[in-house]
Design brief:
alpha/beta; Quinone Oxidoreductase, Chain A, domain 1; Rossmann fold; 17 strands; about 25% helix; about 25% strand
């Protein structure tokens, strides 16, 4: 099969072709695993974090990709073979120990043995991949392959982030950064919390215009102040500076939820400008999002089916993965990039 593989750490700005298209054997599923013929795979900023070494794979080479839609074509001896032929989605969650207190409580995203698709195990930048049977979820019929792919991470992590804000209908919500995840959060809010006004902060003018098209009541630069203080803000950027700026837009008792696996270090010094009285006092909160649970993916796919949710996507061929990553790294991408397998 064909696969785009990563062989080590690269700086995408200096090395714009970090992935290599290679011919490799089709994987064989283990006893409780499924073999999936990949139809589409979303391109996520976490892949950039992997490539640039902020959350590196434990072994090389590795096949990235964790927003996977495909058809089950084979199953291990302990897996349900009746699922062969069905279309499924695979997200960032690959596996966990299943026995620790976090797994028992349904918070396997916090498991010390958490393993991620496309980082700790080969992912979906390939024609085939294998995955534990419990980590593959039915995809709503109304969604095409490329439309469904971003829902597996950008959508699921956005859904988890929205829940962690504790938002109530009528609250004021901010979104910092407006890419694949944030634009799906805005669509969710418009359907689930129709009384909630959404304020968007983004560096790119095109992203701000896109946010207003989708129903944001206001859009400004990341460094601007919102016209009113906000109950909560979800930060989806790769940088540190927007975290500080978001705290300044929160109302007393407000909560910032950081939707990122890692943050880049380039502007870490901006943390030194955090002013306790202005930015943290009055019981403001900062909460991080750690991975996703299986229930996040399952619940969000069901919600997407009810809403008939469809993300904005730009399609690329498998061998254009480096191009898709470079454009994502440069910013200003409208919606989500998706690799389409032929």
């Amino acid at each position: 099969m064909k696969a785009m593989r990563l062989h080590g750490v690269h700086d995408i700005r200096r090395e714009p072709r970090p992935l290599v298209l290679e011919e490799v054997p089709v994987p064989r599923p283990g006893p409780d695993q499924l073999l999936i013929r990949v139809l589409a795979c979303g391109v996520c900023h976490t892949e950039i974090d992997e490539i640039e070494g902020r959350t590196p794979p434990p072994d090389y080479p590795v096949v990235p990709g964790h927003e996977v839609v495909g058809t089950i074509v084979d199953a291990g001896v302990d897996a349900d073979r009746s699922r062969i032929g069905t279309r499924v989605g695979v997200g960032w969650f690959f596996s966990s120990c299943g026995a620790c207190r976090f797994c028992v409580e349904g918070n396997e995203n916090l498991c010390p043995d958490f393993k991620a698709t496309g980082r700790d195990a080969d992912g979906g930048y390939a024609q085939y991949m294998k995955v534990p049977s419990g980590s593959a979820f039915p995809v709503p019929e109304h969604l095409g392959d490329t439309a469904a792919a971003p829902l597996l991470c950008a959508g699921a992590i956005g859904y988890r982030s929205l829940r962690l804000t504790g938002v109530k209908d009528g609250d004021l919500l901010g979104l910092t950064g407006f890419g694949g995840s944030a634009h799906l959060v805005l669509k969710m809010v418009r359907n689930v919390y129709p009384g909630t006004d959404v304020f968007v902060f983004a560096r790119d003018p095109g992203e701000r215009e896109f946010a207003l098209e989708l129903g944001a009541v206001w859009a400004g630069d990341t460094s601007q102040r919102s016209p009113v203080k906000l109950n909560s803000v979800i930060d989806t950027t790769p940088a540190w500076k927007p975290v500080v700026e978001a705290m300044r837009n929160l109302a007393p008792g407000g909560r910032l939820v950081i939707n990122a696996i890692r943050k880049e270090n380039a502007d870490r010094e901006c943390l030194l400008t955090l002013d306790y009285a202005e930015d943290l006092w009055m019981e403001k909160e900062i909460k991080s999002v750690a991975n996703v649970c299986r229930r996040d993916i399952s619940e969000f796919l069901n919600l997407a089916a009810e809403m008939k949710l469809s993300p904005e996507v730009t399609e690329y061929a498998l061998d254009e993965a480096n191009l898709a990553l470079a454009r994502l790294r440069g910013g200003g991408v409208r919606g989500a990039g998706v690799l389409r397998m032929l």
